[in-house]
């Protein structure tokens, strides 16, 4: 730990009281029961920069040093204070809405590395291969993850850039992904790049009972994970040129919702509970059997919900080959969804839901999963402690 | 021209008066002396999606059809109205600040194509190769360009996506680039990814005399270009890891400005005119001979200014080889600057300025130009006319 950084941290309480800093309560903090950026979020956090790191050090002491440095730096960053040697590109921007969420990948628990193999949670599985997966190893996995969310893309990138620099070689970037949310006026469910509202039936983050049931790890997990969660991230490329050449009624059948107002087929208004039993004159389900909303619905998944926090991504254009007819190889948009979901246990969350969807969802003909990972998200840090301390001392 | 689209356009005057649409004066329009997105801009347009297209049709009539469709669609898009077959992902977003700026590349004037070779402006040169250029053909050139600027990245992308679809094969995407500006609080010169303020000495877009002198094509150009401009775009990758490992005093010498407040070295405050003659005790220029501000200054370039409208870009990370010591090959940020400059004539604007800079600017050891192009930006469209009509009938 660098002494001057310690010094700055020691005086943060005083700094926060000064006129040019937001009150402590108004900004995110690494301390508390849960990490920021999971339950408390969304409003104004229109941009993300996600980064997966590989560990490049052999010893547990290096790990502790890294986690201490990141803990201190993340507090400074979330307060909008420059870190030591800061590159300053976020100096004039509004830091208020920055949150940093750290995660641990399976590599951290690898046998013979840091002596943490016995602490690997059973829920931190190696994700199975799903039908249709085209995961690029260069965009998949990682020993550590950091999700930065902010109102300004430069603030999010700035935060990860400082963490990467302060890692000082102990952790090196493995892959990164930018994302954004289009902000609806004045407040509504955002639309994804397919033009449909995304998140109408999400977990209610303001309901502690729902969060406890579906998102936060409870007594079933190891002590160091209680109050934590599990993050599944998938980079999902959308065949937008193909999608744009389909008719809206077909898109609505595929999705199971109307496009303009987002109502479930046969329902009135976006927040109507879908009627999955309703049939048309021919006896077919109004909400098609392989439609996206039916596949994803808790009613069709033993009541399971996962907290989605999706961003769109737009990496321009590049040459690709389409997976479905009309097969075509050429320059296409490299744009789509950064699917991000938090859950209490992926074995009862993402995995069974997506195992079914990956085989049957009509939407699959327009989507390709090209990268991602699963990370254990430890709980919030106890004040005076550092990221991962409970794990390391477990 | 599709009759239903015509119909919609015909009624736009009435629509604009309706409560749910901004007044005509409040939104950008393709009509007027100049295209939108050049002089009138900036406030709130924090995102860009730039697209270069190749023409895929042989006949002038197809070109007219394309330009008519784009003219009609661009008016709808800037009014926030859906185009025919719209993909709707911007339906709930605020369209108000969208501007679309169209350009013509050298390919439009190729001999034996559309019969326009005699109309190619002398100023629309083939850009020379500059020292250090590493232009990727897959990110360079194009027959047509569209720059969409908006307050929401989805609105900018949406606009280009509709234009690409409505081109109906007559023009196909060649390359694209997203960009953003970090919005300073409450209003200040934005910082680029090097952490320095960028644009302190830009052309004053509110001064018609300066715009006429440096930006708008006058009587020296062909009649169809009067009131137009020339766009130079360069995708400039920054070696941020390398930059972040240098000390601030070195960075300030390289730039010729202080980092925190952006003052020229030896001056007080960002908007002080740099004193290029001031020397230190050893007789060396305070603002180093090969510093970036000296290289770019009008005082060192026969009074020439170009209107810069830069965006940062962030395409994540990929494997690259550094150009300068410490040489390293590995995963690095693919982030930097979308340099965009408008000027009356590139032969007296970008070309001589950058010819010198590309050889001597100290900043070059941290930057690599990886793509770009030069496009003739025709003037605003006469109402009742279409994009490029004056050129095609010239």
Provide key terms for this protein.
homodimer; 394 residues; alpha+beta; four-stranded antiparallel sheet; 9 strands; 21% strand
What can you tell me about this protein's structure?
The first copy, chain A, is α+β, with helices and mostly antiparallel strands and 394 residues long. Chain A is built from ten helices and nine strands. In chain A, strands 5, 6, 7, 8 and 9 form a five-stranded antiparallel β-sheet that branches. The first copy, chain A, has a four-stranded antiparallel β-sheet with strand order 2-3-1-4, covered by helices on one side. The longest helix of chain A is centred in the first third of the chain and has 19 residues, at 60-78. Chain A is globular. Residues 1-25 of chain A have low confidence and may be disordered. Chains A and B meet through α4, β4, α6, β7 and β8 of A and α4, β4, α6, β7 and β8 of B.
Topology (elements, then pairings):
Two copies of one chain form a homodimer.
Chain A: H1 3-10, H2 12-17, E1 47-55, H3 60-78, E2 99-104, E3 144-150, H4 153-166, E4 171-180, H5 208-214, E5 229-238, H6 240-244, H7 248-255, H8 292-296, E6 307-308, E7 311-321, E8 329-343, H9 350-360, E9 367-377, H10 389-392
Antiparallel strand pairs in A: 1-3, 1-4, 2-3, 5-8, 5-9, 6-8, 7-8
Helix pairs in contact in A: 3-4
């Amino acid at each position: 730990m660098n002494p001057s950084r310690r010094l700055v941290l020691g005086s943060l309480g005083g700094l926060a009281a000064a006129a040019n800093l937001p009150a402590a309560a108004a900004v995110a903090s690494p301390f508390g029961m849960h990490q920021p950026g999971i339950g408390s979020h969304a409003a104004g956090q229109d941009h993300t920069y996600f980064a997966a790191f590989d560990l490049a050090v052999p010893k547990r002491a290096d790990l502790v040093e890294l986690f201490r440095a990141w803990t201190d730096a993340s507090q400074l960053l979330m307060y909008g204070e420059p870190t030591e040697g800061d590159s300053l590109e976020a100096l004039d921007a509004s830091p208020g809405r920055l949150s940093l969420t750290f995660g641990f990948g399976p590599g951290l628990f690898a046998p013979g590395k840091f002596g943490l193999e016995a602490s690997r949670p059973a829920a931190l599985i190696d994700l199975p291969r799903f039908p249709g997966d085209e995961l690029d190893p260069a965009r998949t996995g990682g020993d550590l993850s950091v999700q930065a969310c902010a109102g300004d893309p430069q603030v999010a990138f700035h935060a990860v850039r400082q963490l990467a620099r302060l890692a000082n070689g102990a952790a090196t970037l493995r892959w990164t992904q930018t994302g954004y949310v289009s902000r609806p006026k004045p407040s509504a469910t955002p639309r994804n790049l397919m033009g449909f509202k995304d998140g109408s039936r999400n977990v209610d983050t303001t309901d502690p009972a729902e969060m406890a049931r579906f998102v936060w790890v409870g007594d079933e997990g190891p002590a160091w994970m209680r109050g934590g969660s599990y993050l599944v991230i998938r980079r999902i490329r959308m065949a937008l040129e193909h999608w744009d050449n389909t008719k809206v009624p077909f898109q609505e059948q595929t999705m199971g919702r109307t496009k303009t107002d987002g109502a479930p087929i046969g329902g009135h208004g976006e927040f109507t509970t879908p009627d999955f039993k309703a049939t048309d004159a021919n006896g077919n389900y109004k909400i098609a059997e392989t439609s996206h909303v039916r596949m994803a619905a808790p009613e069709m998944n033993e009541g399971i919900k996962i907290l989605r926090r999706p961003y769109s991504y737009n990496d321009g254009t590049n040459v690709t080959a389409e997976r479905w007819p009309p097969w075509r190889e050429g320059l296409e948009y490299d744009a789509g969804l950064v699917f991000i979901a938090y859950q209490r246990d992926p074995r009862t969350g993402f995995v069974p839901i997506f195992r079914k969807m990956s085989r049957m969802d009509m939407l699959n003909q327009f989507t390709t999963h090209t990268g991602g990972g699963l990370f254990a998200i430890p709980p919030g840090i106890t004040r005076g402690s550092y990221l991962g301390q409970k794990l390391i001392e477990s």
